[in-house]
Amino acid sequence: MRFTERFQTRLWKAAEWFKGLAWKLGSLYHPASLRQKGLAASAGLVLAAALVLSLFVGWYWSHEPDAFDVHQVALQRVGGDASRLRVGVVYTSTLMRIGEVLLDKPGGYLSNDVMPPGVWLDNIPNWEYGALIMLRDGAAALRNHMSRSQSQSVEDAALAEAEPRFNFRNDSWLFPPTEGEYRKGLKALDDYLRRLADPADPQAQFYARADNLRQYLEIIEKRLGSLSQRLSASVGQIRINTDLAGDAGAAQSTATSSSVVVQTPWLQLDDVFYEARGSVWALAAILKSIEHDFQDVLNKKNAIVSLRQIVRELEEAQQPTLSPVILNGSGFGLFANYSLTMANYIARANAAVIDLRDLLQQG
């Protein structure tokens, strides 16, 4: 009797256990539970697909724009009429093209993006900044030197409108957006170009003179020198302080040591590199337009070869990189250092700029 009771009790407990298991399994496959799990799985798939798509789009947007034919672009702006390619048209057209590439390349202008994938990217925004600096310098030279016959002449109203627009902050998202200000600058440049290409309009002028070109090259010389120094600092250097250039009578605001240690922070290596890439891309295009518009001056000064050498060095600095990251090996180490290679090309271009300025001054 006792055996029978124990057996019945165990049988009852087993039945209760299977009953509980069945209830749990049934709850897993309940329609409401399946609906919730399906929604969660769908949301996860959508997020994963969005992430993959953002990574692909970011990769596509990170491609640097190609070089362009400055003469062909200018010819298209004047409707294919070569007779309208008056002095200064190619230079002005090139500035406009640089601004258009900044705004209309794949992904548009990225420096002020606040949404993915643009907000995650930093290489192309730094490239944009380098090209923008050269655009600003070119527009300032056009307004203050090349479009004016002398210091007492009246500046062109359209250029006075364009140049400040390009100097607007480069990362404003709203109120107003950076793109809107730069497009206003391009519109003003287009107004100047249309009047410049019109033989019946004598108000818009461009003076291709040696002194105007020399003044522009003074700015470029300092830009290239700064880029070369910043790129060279990728490995860290101890530099002799040459701020006062050995002048015993010179003075500076704050005293500094006779030698300084300069090194680019690790997280800024690619920033400096891509800023330099954007700078040389834009500068090479501007110098090609200068070869066209200042051709007579350059030939008279025997300086055409020097200008072409500068362009050649800048083009060599735009060779594609084979590594997915910017390599930063030591100066004489086992691995390449992209920054030092770029600094070498820019330093050689800078030396050629100095020679070109001397030729323009002396002939």
Strand order of the largest sheet: 1-2
Domain count: the total is 2
Number of helical elements: 12
| Shape annotation | globular
Poorly predicted residue ranges = none
Structural class: mainly alpha
What value does the Rg take, in angstroms? 31 Å
- Distance between the amino and carboxyl termini: 127 Å
Main β-sheet, in a few words?
A: 2 strands, antiparallel
Order of helices and strands: HHHHHHHHEEHHHH
Oligomer: single chain
Hey, roughly how much beta strand do the residues contain?
under 5%
Share of helix, binned: 55-70%
Mean pLDDT: 87
Extended strand count: 2
Q: What would you say this structure looks like, in words?
A:
This protein has 363 residues and is mainly alpha-helical. It has two domains: 10-61; 62-240 and 259-362, no CATH class. Helices cover 63% and strands 2% of the residues. It has twelve helices and two strands, in the order ααααααααββαααα. It has helices at residues 2-28, 31-61, 70-77, 89-104, 123-146, 157-166, 178-196, 210-232, 269-293, 295-300, 304-316, 338-362; strands at residues 237-240, 259-262. The protein has a two-stranded antiparallel ribbon. Helix 4 runs antiparallel to helix 9. It is globular, with a radius of gyration of 31 Å. The mean pLDDT is 87.
